[in-house]
Amino acid sequence: MQVPAQFRYEKAVSVEHALTLLGRYGPESRVVAGGHSLIPMMKLRLAQPEALIDINDLHELAIISVERHVLCIGALTRHADLLSSALVGEHFPIFHDAERVIADPVVRNRGTVGGSLCQADPSEDLSAAFAAVRGEAVIVSPEGRRTVPVREFFLGPYQTVVDPGELLVQLRVPIRSSASAYQKVERRAGDWAVAAAGAELVLDDGVVADAGIGLAALGAPNFHAREAESFLVGGPATDERFAEAARIAAEHCNPIADQRGPEEYKRHLAKTLVTRVLSVARTRWHGLHSGEKAR
Amino acid sequence: MIMEITVEVNGSSYTRSVEPRLLLVHFLRDELGLTGTHWGCDTSNCGTCVVWLDDVPVKSCTVLAVMADGHSVRTVEGLEGADGLDPVQQGFMACHGLQCGFCTPGMLMTARWLIDHNPAPSEADIREAISGQLCRCTGYENIVRSVRWAAEHEAGLRERTVEDAGTEVQA
Lengths: 295, 171
Fold this sequence. Notes:
CATH architecture of the largest domain in chain B: Orthogonal Bundle
CATH class of the largest domain in chain B: Mainly Alpha
Keywords (chain A): FAD, Flavoprotein, Oxidoreductase
InterPro entries (chain A): CO_DH_flav_C (IPR005107), CO_DH_flav_C_dom_sf (IPR036683), Diverse_Substr_Oxidored (IPR051312), FAD-bd_PCMH (IPR016166), FAD-bd_PCMH-like_sf (IPR036318), FAD-bd_PCMH_sub1 (IPR016167), FAD-bd_PCMH_sub2 (IPR016169), Mopterin_DH_FAD-bd (IPR002346)
Shape of chain A: globular
Strand content of chain B: 5-15%
Mean pLDDT of chain B: 94
GO molecular function, one term (chain A): FAD binding
CATH class of the largest domain in chain A: Alpha Beta
Domain FAD-binding PCMH-type (chain A): 2-178
Pfam family, one (chain A): CO_deh_flav_C
Largest sheet of chain A: 5 strands, antiparallel
Order of helices and strands of chain A: EHEHEEEHHHHHHEEEEEEEEHHH
Oligomer: heterodimer
Mean pLDDT of chain A: 96
């Protein structure tokens, strides 16, 4: 039987209360929401916090909305709610693509968006998706609030810029006319990625005006493929260019050999998946803009 | 640390003093004696511990009992109604949806939720819904058949109710 070690438990009733509790219990306390990363780690003693601060009652952190052309996703949003949100699907299909292959439906009922990002697992699909679309993380502390680009949110595996006394409260993604997609190769349904890629494209008359490429489980710095993005911008959105961008992305990431496969295989997947998500994003772009062309 | 919690389980309220580290699955089984909920992998992979927390299926090996304080839980023991077994339970009987039965409570709870939210699930819908739950006996074929049986049976019941109502109006 796997049971966590002893800890104190507190239920936060507001964001301010959560911050007070974080201050009171210090760096040995942990925020818990869905608990689907933290509780298994506590069972295995990979984590042994002295206190857990439960934020499940902070319903104000579970809201998805659009404010001034920014998609706002509360940190306590469950995976299932991100997947079922028409608002999210309309603006960023990349999140729906990713959510369909994150864990399984029952786990998605409990796990949260903020928890996934704060866990900072190198294989986390949402980290790659938010990196692709250049999302921002809103972090609060007793001193106030700060906004950090998701591309600067991760310090390394399982490490983020969220300090012990701080709380991630929201993810924000500026809405623009774009198309996006996400694909993942997994060994079995609901597993972590062997490799995964996401892309966001902005096209202008067949030319790539802007591109974002996110990578998960591939050791890409901050979950994105900067060199490949730079290559794409300004050039035509052709299969040849996509293939070359994918080759560059595969070259610059740093996958490690593990039980999910050797490095060479993962680089091959990076190349294939980046090509595919760019192609799907382009198709979606044309689907959205075919009416304009006709006019 | 010991905390007093009150949890509504299958419509009855239970108050117990528990350690915060007690998992919901053990609260149900050991504190309340509701051993219908099974406890399997301990890693939120196998899904035999699925119960409803506030009407949403969750894996109770990865939820703390203290998190359920003030909330409602529905377990497999809460499926049977006044007029007998729930249609999903009947479906598993009719279509041999189990062999050893270890995964069954979790499968039943997910199936009930699926049909409540999607009364006519396709085979793909059913397979997706139970994709986080492992069965080592049936190869899933009979489980999928059982869930379909339950959905079709309930659809049939609804139709008959409508027909009966129509007859009454005519009479």
